Amino acid sequence: MKITKSEFISSYADVHKCPAPDKPEFAFIGRSNVGKSSLINMLTQTKDLAKTSSTPGKTQTINHFLINETWYLVDLPGYGYASVSKTIREGFGQMIEDYVQKRENLSCIFVLVDSRLEPQKSDLSFINWAGSKGVPLAIVFTKVDKLKLNELQRNVQQFKKAVLADWEELPPMIITSSEKKTGRDELLDFIDDALKV
Ligand code: GTP
Ligand code: MG
Which of 11, 14, 27, 40 lies closest to 130, judged by CA? Predict the structure, then answer.
């Protein structure tokens, strides 16, 4: 799929204020700083359509981007960022949980996982929780430019094993780097296929 048009539509903290759920929607979810906003810029070939920062906690609302006038790409706040005050952190949790459970046009959520780390509890519990809600999901490994191929293979293998402790089969997995544009075609093909269903 070619992306010919990407527009920022809205930024809200409440799922009920999001645009009418009249188009298929794909959302990026994951720990703070994992690279959600960067991946949106990589996919849309823009520099700062989605705001990024080296400091975790940059995205604090639900951000809708309309792609090719036909589907939404959504940037969300991160989960599991300990330095944000407890109340705000719980708010993030609630916003994401409401979004995942109430957004009726969700075609797939992409759970972004930092490829440099061993399996993180927060990622696994999010994947298990979202899976239990019946939301289609795929796992996207980020920042693969930061490690060697054998390290990447080891981490992906460990992650698969951790997921299989709770899942009967593995969800789709895509390897990416926003820095090197790795995985762009694969991610867009995946979305294209989902749009045809
Ligand atoms: P929050 O909005 O805070 O939840 O973070 P986020 O998940 O949106 O992360 P963001 O895209 O803002 O990126 C966080 C940091 O990681 C930035 O400094 C990015 O430049 C860096 N980063 C993101 N993707 C990549 C990547 O593929 N490779 C490398 N090397 N750095 C990356
Ligand atoms: Mg962000």
Answer: 27
* C-alpha of residue 150 to centroid of ligand 1, in Å: 22
Q: Mean pLDDT, consecutive 10-residue segments, the chain of 197 residues?
A: 97 95 97 96 97 92 97 93 55 81 96 97 91 94 98 98 95 98 98 94
Please give the DSSP secondary-structure letter assigned to residue 8.
E
- H/E element, 95: helix 86-102
Residues with CB under 5 A from ligand 2 (ion): 36-37, 58-59
Ligand nearest to the CA of 30: 1
* Non-local CB neighbours of 106 within 8 Å, separated by 6+ positions: 25, 26, 27, 100, 135, 136
Nearest residue (by CA) to ligand 1, atom 3, is 57
Pocket-forming residues, ligand 1, beta carbon under 6 Å = 30, 32-38, 52-54, 56-59, 77-78, 142-143, 145-146, 177-179
- pTM of the complete model: 0.95
The atom number, within ligand 1, closest to the CA of 177 reads 27
Q: Looking at this predicted complex, what is its ipTM?
A: 0.99
Token digits of residue 95: 């916003």
Structure tokens belonging to residue 24: 């298929």
The CATH number that applies at residue 167 is 3.40.50.300
**Which structural domain range is residue 84 located in?**
6-191
Q: Is residue 106 part of a domain?
A: yes
Question: Does some domain include residue 197?
Answer: no
